[in-house]
Amino acid sequence: MRFSRRHLRIIELALLIWILISFDVNSHNSFVQAKESLITSEHNQPSATCSSDTNENGSAACSNSAPEDDIHVDGDSIKSDEESPKSLRDFMKVFNRLGTSWSHVFGSYLDVVKTAHGKDMEGDVYADDIESGVAMLQNMVAQALKEAGGEGTKEGQKWTFDAVPLQEFGATMDDVFVAFLRWSGVDSSNEDEHEACKLKGGVNKREIFPINVSKAFRRLTAYATWMDEQKSVLLDPPLTLDSVRQAKSLLYSRVTHDDCGRVVWWLDLGQTKFKEMKHLAHEEILRFFVWLSHLIMTDENAQRNGIMFLDSMDSVSFYQYMTMLPYQLGITIDKFMIGVTPLKTKLVVFLKRPLWFDVGFGLLSVFLPTRMKKRVSQPDAEQASIEDIVGSNIPVGFDNYNGTLAFDLITKHEEEKAAKSYVAK
């Protein structure tokens, strides 16, 4: 499918109408600015193109030659949300200053979102249980490796899974296969019914049998491809907790189990060291997210019950947020988390949101499926609101909440590794 300039024009008009109905940011001035932005974008913004070719997950590959701009944006000097975008025109201008375009950013995120769930397809093969599914995946991988010409070929190298940090997490490839089978086997029907969990978002409905092994293999193929593409970054040095400590120390992250047994990934931007992160190699940030993703991916509770992301934004300015991670790096990480890993996200929670975020998410949500929109929660910042979502398991030090959980899965992993090292000596 190819998006023409006319198609983009229609999308822009739809966005404008939605903004006028849903937001009263700048009253009459918003209308004038947004209208002008549609006129100027016709001449100044590049057209996004999407090829008819699709990747393993069935989403079109899109590209956009974003405009270059030599304006330097110092996020640290822009502390106030008053200087952040509050209209469509504002977003177009600031994305241009950041070296990209609004249509490219939204298009990229929408492409990522499309890959979240996978699909059942005609001709798919099924397994009656996990054990049979593992054997079938082993055979599928062996066949794919054979068809690729063996481990010595470029295509065959990805099926060796060299970059997967198995030793770090005491796992085997069969354990990884189980994770993908459980992802494929989650019953996605009637997701609003959560008898096993009364907290917001619920848990994965229990596995359905037979399990669609073909769907699991398609997801595994995307995983093998992504890990192979990033292999040079992930293997030098191999992914370990020690190798990602610097990034871990700058980006406040905690990983816990909540009262329903789901895994919760806590991110506190108020405790994130933005200035220091600017001087950290982008590869180190990517490595940390991949390491943390595998910690979660190999957790049985995450596989069975699903995961949640809880982000306290601390009213961060748009420029701080956008320059915390380079845009393309952010897309790469999102693609890995949403379209590659075998994890079912039950809820994404945003706290202490700045105005620009509410406006931007409003733009994006126009195109999100209803099921995806229902998985985003934007509560107030009261303690009771958080407890309605995760229960009582709040980490010590997270924002200004009265957390009591002193140890999370990261510290547990660290202690287990230290104990094994001590025994080995």
TrEMBL record:
Coiled coil: none annotated. InterPro entries: CRAL-TRIO_dom, CRAL-TRIO_dom_sf. The keyword Transmembrane does not apply. This is CRAL-TRIO domain-containing protein. It holds the Pfam family CRAL_TRIO. Keywords: Signal. GO terms for molecular function: phosphatidylinositol bisphosphate binding. One of its GO terms (cellular component) is membrane. It comes from Minutocellus polymorphus. Residues 69-84 have a biased composition (Basic and acidic residues). Residues 237-409 form the CRAL-TRIO domain. Residues 42-66 have a biased composition (Polar residues). PROSITE patterns: CRAL_TRIO. Residues 42-84 are annotated as: Disordered.
